[in-house]
Structure formats: C-alpha cells, structure tokens
Design goal:
The complex is a heterodimer of chains A (about 250) and B (about 160).
Chain A: H1 7-12, H2 15-20, H3 29-37, H4 56-59, H5 62-81, H6 91-100, H7 105-132, H8 141-163, H9 168-182, H10 188-196, H11 203-234
Helix pairs in contact in A: 5-7, 6-7, 7-8, 8-9, 8-11, 9-10
Chain B: H1 12-39, E1 51-55, E2 64-68, E3 73-77, E4 83-87, E5 99-100, E6 105-107, E7 114-115, E8 121-123, E9 132-133, E10 135-138, E11 141-145
Antiparallel strand pairs in B: 1-11, 2-3, 3-4, 4-9, 5-6, 6-7, 7-8, 10-11
The chains are: A mainly alpha (about 250), B alpha+beta (about 160).
Chain lengths: ~250, ~160
C-alpha cells in the first residue's frame, strides 16, 4: 500500500462506486458524451448545447421550470394522498385536516395548489416562447404536436384536481366546466356523462376525477414528457438563430 | 387504353395476414366496446336516473312548486290542476336552479337565468325551457322517470300530465 494514494481514491476506485459512476471526470469529448449517453437520467438531454442557447433570456428556462413544477407537484401530491379520501363525505374534512391540523400540511397543500397554477402559466408561456422564436418549425414540428398534447394533459390535471377539495367553488366550477364540454358537437353529452359517471357531479364524478388526477394523467404526462425531451435532443437541442450575428 | 387485369390467385401469406388482421381489428373493437360499457354511468333503482316516487297527487296544491330532492326535480302543479316534473338542472350550464316562492320563479344563481312555473325561460342566458321528465300514475302515486329527460324549446299544454 502506497501512502500517496488519497483516501477519496479508495472510494472512487471501489467496485461499488464504479458500478454507479462508470466514467471518471470527463476531460475529453468522448468521455463528456459518454457521461450523458450512459446515464438514464441524463440521456434525454442533448450531449452538446449551443453556447448561445445558454443565455437565460434565450428560452427563459420555461420548459425546465415546467418540469421542476411537475416534480414538485408529484412530490407534494403523493404527500397529500396519504391523508386525502376521495369520498363526498370525507373529502372536504380530509382537506380541512391537512390544512389545519397536520404539521406542514398547509404548506404542502399550498405548494401543490400554487405550483399547479404556476405550471399552467409556465407551460403557456413556454408555448408562447417557442412560437415567437419560431422553434416549432421543421425539424421540430412533431415536437410542437407533442407539446400541444402536454398542454392538454396539464389543463386536464388542473381541471380534475380542481374538484378534489369538494367545496362549493370546486363543485360548481366542475358542474359548469363539464357542461361546457357537453356543448361539443356529436360526442359532447357522452363525454360529459362518461367523465362525471352520471348526469350530475356526485360521488361517481369525484372518484373518476381522482383516478384521472393521481394515476392516469401523471403517467401519460411522464410518457409524453420523455418523448418531448428526447425529441429536443434528436432535433439538435434548442433551436438557434444562426443569422443573428449577421443582422 | 390497355388495362391489365391480373387474375392472380391470392397467396396463402396474403390470405393469412388478412384474416389475422381482421381478427385483430375485431378483438380491439370488441375490447373498446367492453371498456366503454365499463365506464358507462350506472344507475341505482329508485334514485335519480331511475324511476322516483314523487308522492300522492293530492299532496301537491294547485299553483305550487315542490322540490323532490332525491329525484333532482320539481313537481309544478299548474292552476288547472295538471302536473309537470321539471329537472332542477339549468339548461344553460347545469347549475341547480332554486325555486323562489317570493318571486314565483326559478332563479339560477350561476348566470341569472329565470324560468316561470311552466319552466319557460323568462330571462337570462338559458337557451331553452327547463327539461322535464315523464310522469305516470302507479298505485295512486306519481312516479317520475328521471332516466329520460325531455328537452323542449317552450311550454306546450300537451306536456302537462293530468290524473
């Protein structure tokens, strides 16, 4: 055993460490690429990004903000699920318990609510940014479509979550909202009935909205988000205006 | 013009793929149909969505409107003694419309649609008269079929149920 080896090397050279972190410090282009492509969490990210697109005013980071808000919503949402009961007798009292007697309950619920509002805002602004920078143009036109699907999922999650407190505001908002859906031609009234599980907002509507909110929509969103981020990488990272320095 | 009409026999491969594809389409459509049935709203008999007993005909006084809560409708007995079963749901955006005895009108709290005791629109954004349910007399009781709402543009004396 040589005394010159640093103790930290012992850890970083260990088999366990190497099984998690396969590459050493990336000091050449190949290793830098491998750091991204050989990691499941990083591989959606482009290996190389344009220096220009790193300026914060280029994209305002709105897509990243949306992802972070989504993660906050998943985390706080799972915490809320430990107390919430989707029954018309117990939903509102459960919400009250979370707000009034659970330690950090009010903070958790407020985080969930504010992040939900902010996520709708961030997603819409992200769409506006993409539109005004022309980033929807080929080869990124397919990713725009995926983005529209993600917008609909976001609004769907926002709408279904709105019913869950089961107070007067949420009850009548969903009554009016589902009736607006009922005005859609041909399929309108069927969509409305299938969504509510009946003619009016009641227990059947609450459990359906709950299941959509906590299971179906988040899973669909994770799938669509993965495709969305992967397409960004496949389409060559953020769109860059190559003519900017000319004009 | 010369049109070729090759009269080739269908190969075994094409035939099997076509049959297999048709089978797959049948399977998927059968499954989606079953899934549609799974999600279709269910109705408990005797409650809203099925046949609801409103009460004996003479419990309702002439010229009054009474709420039958479990059936989500009003029984409006008109001055001539006839009955109407009006769904409590506003025809605008579905809010529950309360009966205002002092005004002798239904007034919707959501967007101020106003209906008269016949269910006709008096004011507000409602596009048509309140929907009604068919009434029948069974064993001396008024029974209202809440599963079959009848949409109507306006009031018509033929809609009134007489015992």
């Amino acid at each position: 055993m040589s005394e010159s080896i640093k103790p930290s090397r012992k850890i970083t050279d260990s088999r366990i460490w190497r099984s998690f972190f396969r590459h050493g410090w990336p000091d050449n282009p190949l290793d830098r690429s491998l750091t991204m492509t050989s990691n499941v969490f990083f591989h959606l990210h482009p290996v190389k990004v344009s220096r220009k697109s790193l300026a914060w005013s280029y994209s305002f980071g709105l897509g990243v903000i949306s992802v972070i808000l989504f993660l906050v919503l998943v985390f706080t949402g799972v915490l809320l699920m430990f107390y919430y009961v989707p029954s018309i007798e117990r939903a509102y009292p459960a919400m009250n318990t979370i707000q009034l007697s659970v330690p950090m309950g009010q903070f958790t619920r407020n985080m969930h609510r504010w992040s939900a509002h902010l996520m709708v805002l961030a997603v819409v602004l992200h769409m506006v940014r993409v539109f005004y920078t022309g980033a929807y143009k080929p080869p990124r036109e397919f990713n725009w479509v995926v983005g529209v699907v993600l917008l609909l999922f976001t609004l769907g999650a926002s709408f279904t979550g709105y019913l869950l407190p089961w107070d007067q505001l949420s009850y009548w908002a969903i009554t009016v909202g589902s009736n607006i859906a009922g005005y859609a031609p041909v399929v309108g009234s069927t969509v409305r009935e299938m969504l509510l599980g009946g003619q009016e907002v009641g227990q059947d509507a609450l459990i359906r909205f709950y299941t959509l909110h906590i299971a179906l929509l988040p899973v669909l969103m994770v799938v669509a988000m993965s495709v969305h981020l992967w397409r960004v990488r496949k389409d060559g990272g953020l769109a860059v205006n190559h003519n900017e320095h000319n004009g | 013009m010369h049109i070729k009409t090759p009269n080739k026999p269908v190969s075994r491969r094409v035939l099997l793929f076509t049959l297999g594809g048709a089978e797959l389409v049948a399977l998927v459509s059968q499954f989606s149909n079953a899934l549609f049935g799974y999600f279709k709203p269910r109705i408990q008999p005797g409650s809203f969505g099925g046949k609801v007993v409103a009460g004996k005909p003479l419990e309702f006084k002439k010229g009054t409107v009474s709420h039958v809560q479990e059936g989500h409708f009003y029984v409006s007995r008109l001055a001539d003694g006839g009955y109407l079963a009006l769904w409590q749901r506003c025809t605008h955006l579905g809010c529950t419309v309360p009966w205002r005895k002092d005004l002798n009108q239904f007034v919707c709290p959501c967007h101020s649609s106003i209906f008269n005791p016949q269910g006709e629109v008096v004011g507000g954004p409602a596009p048509r008269a309140m929907d009604m349910f068919p009434i029948e007399l069974t064993a001396g009781q008024l029974v209202v079929d809440t599963g079959n709402p009848i949409a109507r543009e306006r009031f018509d004396p033929a809609q009134v149920f007489h015992t």
